[in-house]
Amino acid sequence: MSAYTIHQELFPPQTVEQVERCRFTSPEAVNLVVAKASLLQIYEFVEYVPEQPQTKEPEEEEDEEEPKALAMATDLSSGRLELVAQYKLNGTIATMGVVRTTSPRGKEGCDSLLVGFNDAKMSLLEWSPSTNSIVTVSIHYYERDEYKKEFLTNPYPPNIHIDPQQRCAVLNFYDNKLAVLPFRQSEKLDNEKQDVQEEDGEAQKWPYSPSFLIDLESIDPRIKNVIDMTFLSDYYEPTLAILFQTNQTWTGRLGSLKDTVSVVVVSLDLTAKIYPIIYSLDNLPYDCIKLVAMPKPVTGVLVIAANALLHVSQGSPGVGVAVNGYVKKMSDFHGMINDEKEEELNLSLDGAKAMAFGGDKCFLFLQDGTFATVKMKMDGSKVVGMEIRLETGILASVPSCVASIKQDYFFLGSRVGDSLLIKWEYNNKSEQQQRLQYKVCDTLLNTGPILDMAIGDVESNQKIDDDDVDDVQGKNVPDLELATCSGHGKNGSLCVFQRHVHPQTSFSFNQSGCQALWSIKCRKERYMQEKSENSHWETVEKNSSFEDAFDKLLFISKTKSTMVLSAGDELQELVKTGFYTRGPTIAVSTLFDATRIVQVHATGVMVLTPEGKKVQNFPCKHAKIVDASIQDPYIILTLDNHKMLALQGDPTTKNLISVQLPSYIKEKKVMMTNIFADTSGLFVSIGEKLAAKQKKKRKAEQEEASASLYHPNKKTSPPPIPESSLNATGDFDEVDMDLYGDQVDDQQEKTVDDMSTPIKSDTPPIADTVMAETKEDEDEEMLYASTHIKPEEIDEVNVSLLGGGIGFNEITLVSYWCLVYAEGQLQIYSLPDFKECFHFPYFDLLPDLLTDKPAHSTAERPSNKIQELLMTNIGKERKDPHLVARTDTNDIVIYKAFSFIDHDDDIGRLALRFSRVHHEYVSRKSSEEKRPMQKREIVDEFQVPDADLDDEEDEDIVSEKKNKTTSKLLIPFNDVAGYAGVFVAGEQPAWLMCSCKSFVRVHPMKTDQEVIGFTQFHNVNCQHGFITVDAKSTIRLSRLRTEGVNYDLDWVIQKVPLGQTVHKVEYHPVMRVYAVLVSNPEPVRLRNDDNQYLDGEEEERLPGEFLPRIDKFSMLMISPVTWETVDRVEFEEFEQCFSLQCAALESKQTSTGRKHFMVVGTGSLRGEDTTMRGSIRIYDIIEVVPEPNNPQTNHKFKHLHTEDVKGAVTAMCNVSGHLASCIGSKVIIWSFEDDESLVGVAFIDVQIYVTSMNSIKNFILLGDAQKSIWFLGFQLEPAKLALLGKDYQSFEVGCVDFILDDKSLYLLVGDTNENLDIYQYAPFNLQSFGGQKLMRRGDFHVGSQVQTMIRLPQIEKTENGFEYSRRHFCLCGTFSGSISMISPISEKTFKRLSTLYGQLVNGLQHVAGLNPRAYRLIKGPKQRMSSNRTKAVLDGDLIFEFAGLSVDRQKETTKQIGTTVARIMEDLVDIERSIDHF
Questions:
Q1: What are the strands of the beta sheet with 835-840, ordered from one edge?
Q2: What is the mean pLDDT of residues 530-550?
Q3: What is the pTM of this model?
Q4: What is the CA angle 929-934-937, rounded to 5?
Q5: What values do phi and psi take at 1030, rounded to 5?
Q6: CB-CB contact of 1014 with 503 (8 Å)
Q7: 1272 contacts 1283 by C-beta, under 8 angstroms
Q8: Could you give the CA distance from residue 586 to residue 942 in angstroms, rounded to a whole number?
């Protein structure tokens, strides 16, 4: 029978492989395009000035001299990367290039991206500003059989190279084939006007001419085994330098064949298709690895070899510099300079990456994380030598790519460590002593490569014991976390993954009948008589600490009353105040700069002072209030008769006044309303946007004039700021405004008092004197000139809108907007005049893009799909407007606003659109389950006060309420641990949060009970924390864990740096600690068996001949509470640890007869002349008295036994209480007698080298480095090991594990060609020859090599809550840092999802035109031969995209395959729930 399984990537790849800098999303943006295996990410580089704590110091320094001020200004600014978009591709990105074409997008000043994929595919991508996403312009495909060599698979990865003058791009594939893609050029002569138009039409359609192929052997028959190629600049035709090696050699053959590499420089005449060789140079060292084109004035090309640097240019014989002492033995290159100073640097340039800068200099980034600068020594225009200097400090080790971003920033990508954004500059004290200074501005977290994984228990942070744990459902399933080994060398670390947010609860209490709560910050008001100048400045100073002020009050709304607590050091109930306490509260907030509290209840609105004195009561007579949205100074109420009311605070009287609504709003049947205060500057009308563009042109002309204003008075003028810090002389451009919200034209709807109101910006100018002019004239643009605002011009409104905590020099504008959702339509009105600015008629279909479609009379459509709507800012460093909706099936749909000018629209409409943010989280409620629940909730939630109602009316209203849900589950917060976002309450609570390096993530939170209320809370005992209420009315004060915990990625991650390469990790389930194998490379001199040096003792090593390095291993014990190292065991000098196993062996010490021991398998590596020896070391973990003040140090390793064996112990597992180990080519089963000695009980001979083994009951599965897998059975009495079956194909195995589907056992294999293969032992199948041959049941291409797997039982919902089922799935960790799962599913589900998969493959637009089916076909030379290939593994990544489709697309897709959306969603939820351990 077939194995029905589904594969899904749970966590995306994180290892940075490629990076390109370009202007991709807009002409002004500096983008960084990063490729992480199959993930394409587009970042924007933003320069900003971090907020400085000091106040007056800069000003005092400024009056000394200009240069110092300039140095300070550049030092202060820093850079960061902000994620614009990311795409999962159906293919691994092999290479990238950036090109500026003559397409309309190219003429605007934007670049296109060429992306190359394995074998020989290439796609041209552009950014579409109208949909805020990538579009595929063209796809180019060269995989034809006649180009292939004799290999079944292609060992040569493709490479894209772009001509610096953008005339063509070349793709080098299948070793010496070259595909040339010529780009159309826009330069044409004036007299050809006619032709131009015709040709232009063609060029508009296709920015490139037809591509053609060059076989490099036809240019020069010697060109084979191409190592690298690069384009040279400053030639009339595109000119390509090619590095190749005709006859290959290696280190052991240098005696007979060396200096085999050559460089050839070829000119490509694209029109005549002739390719003359300009010059060539032979006899370069055999270990040349890379070419770097040097800019003017050096020109030519720098060749990097493993032990030397060479420079080749036209008319020069070539010059080389040795960087270590081995060059003399390896190369006779005639131009080599062996200078002792350079040789003693002891550099190894293997795998180095280079970046040329400053004309004659070049950075070299080495494998071990160090870096060097190379300066060319010139004689006239000739290079005569190089000066190499090793810089201090360590950057990312094993760099994979480097890109220069601006003059003084570069990005260094790494496969094994975090990728870094670095700012650097030279400190010119004197010509000789130029010191390079650098600082790391930003990092991209990397969790790869994952070498090993272990599962541990989450250490509970609850300080309190809940008494009612007994009846909590789902306690049968423990909370787990996943610990992985990742990184290399100094970047080595342990990464701890959790899918759920686990907050730290500090305090909890019960309060019956709770439903909702609000925390309130408020301040004493300033009286009017203090009108002196100073007082106003003081208000603002006080303001700046208001953001961090503690919350003063806590409101708790219950079913029949409201409690008000004062939130001091402890919570105390306030009595005898004017607050409304007779019934439940609907909303509480502050008005007038937090000097008034407004409380909304079912029958009215009250305004009170912070002390609780009632100031105003605003009754609502006609109908009950069901929802309220409050944004100082506006309040919008939704009534139960589907009408809305608007109120506005009057700043002079501090009272509420009613706002007259226009008739077209009064007639609407309003479902939901929401006010949004925009501070990002995105919400501007098309007219204002266009005006800003015009102004930008004018400003460019005025720039020089305004710059000269800075000179007369040096004391108050700000220092010159680099143009990039965006604040210099008002040089804004609209794209910066959209993207950063730093400068905003204040052509906003004029808000209160006809004033433009300053609010925070991300980029405060450096001098405190920079201020904004307030303007009276609509057409004036706000200019950041150095004019003082007179204190009188700051009035109540400005200060109130400073929103607390914002310094004086951070200025932007705020504008207010009202969202209304009615009958499936979404409208945005400007406040206070309620003018419609945005209208989208089919919001209930939840499409990918919301565009402004001015209202036509649309037919009414009944729609109750959207239950809740919220517009709020989400973010950390930079907060962006997002629209969040919750549907009746509890799906969370998120939209992000982006700026777009539609020229056809009326200029008063909003210049923005919304694009849907896709997230991996699938809701947990099917609509059928939920409906009865909702009815009950709602009646509880709003008990209708029946004083003024007859009984019949009362019943009517309750029944009406049953039909529409008003339970608020989307609760915004603006500071929990520094994040602003949305909390989703309910049975499956979740957090919506993001930082600038991610888009909005949905992180579920583990809870025992349904959460019904939430508020952020900040006081002494719970700083920047939150309070939740669950269905049992337990109120909990909690905080998010922030120490080292990262919420930016798909899972919550904590990275524990260990500073050494981490190889293996195991968890001890009884003592609850991790054992980790780590190593550090150390230089060694090899000795033979007689303990004599192999390289001869009397020979002194020459300077520059560095020693080889061998890893020195040790085993750490790590406590999962604080993640500190508790104990350490060192191993001997040459002892390499190959395997680590927490084995449950037979022991008389425990009642169960089994006990967990840590077992380490080692081998002693002393070169190829000595025989391999190994040992099995057994350790127990014991409890000891901890050190004082450190309770974590209560465990230690205790060494029990070392068994020396002949051969390395490469893999181990435990089987039936015995230890199975692979020693060389034998498998031996050991019994651990009396906890002190190992006795061998059975053995079997196997193949070449066992890489991994795994056992289940008494079956053992082995994976071999060459010979596929073996399946063994172990019999205890009499002890015997027998071969049951094996796979007769020979391919390389990385790791093995099992999948269980009730009574069927499948064998899962991860091979080194990035595939997963499923086998079955089927002795009754005729083809298996009585079980000798394992039957292949499925295969799947993962896209990255799977190196470690963990088997877990699925979770299923039963009457007793959640329980483990009889199906087991596997988690796979890969070299690219991704985590995926492969899980068995039922046959019915499989067939249903398989037909859905077919629809999605054909129906969805795939990025870069890639085919998901082709990507998932098994790859590799040997696997292609496998006889019975079966597609028994579904591609879950594509299937789960179904959840993010618009409603009509979902219905259409399911209709075609004869099922329903609910049915498919249920399948997806079941799959999600079954693997939800973390």
A1: 672-678, 815-822, 825-830, 835-840
A2: 49
A3: 0.86
A4: 135
A5: -105, 180
A6: no
A7: yes
A8: 9
